[in-house]
Amino acid sequence: MLQTSNYYVQDKFYYSKENIYSTISYCFYYNIKFFTCVIKTN
Questions:
Q1: 3-class SS at 5?
Q2: How many domains is the chain partitioned into structurally?
Q3: Nearest-angstrom CA–CA distance, 32 and 16
Q4: I want to staple 27 with a disulfide (CB 3.0 to 4.6 A). Which of 8, 9, 15, 31 is the partner?
């Protein structure tokens, strides 16, 4: 399910252009917990 995590990261990249660094950092930090990344994206 690691592939899914990457997908979400890219998706957020387009959604949050201003918060690119913040989102990517959080997503990458919680690579294993991709679910957390999704929740934080909102």
A1: helix
A2: 1
A3: 21
A4: 9
Q: What is the pLDDT of residues 1-42, one digit of tens each?
A: 344 444 455 555 444 445 555 555 555 555 555 555 554 544
Q: How many CB atoms lie within 10 A of CB 27?
A: 24
The CA R_g of the chain, rounded to the nearest whole Å, is 9
Q: Which two tokens stand for residue 12?
A: 């957020």
Q: 15: which 2 tokens? A: 């959604």
- In whole angstroms, give the CA distance from residue 2 to residue 15: 21
The whole-model pTM stands at 0.17
Tokens representing residue 19 in the block = 């918060």
Using DSSP, state whether 7 is helix, strand or coil. helix
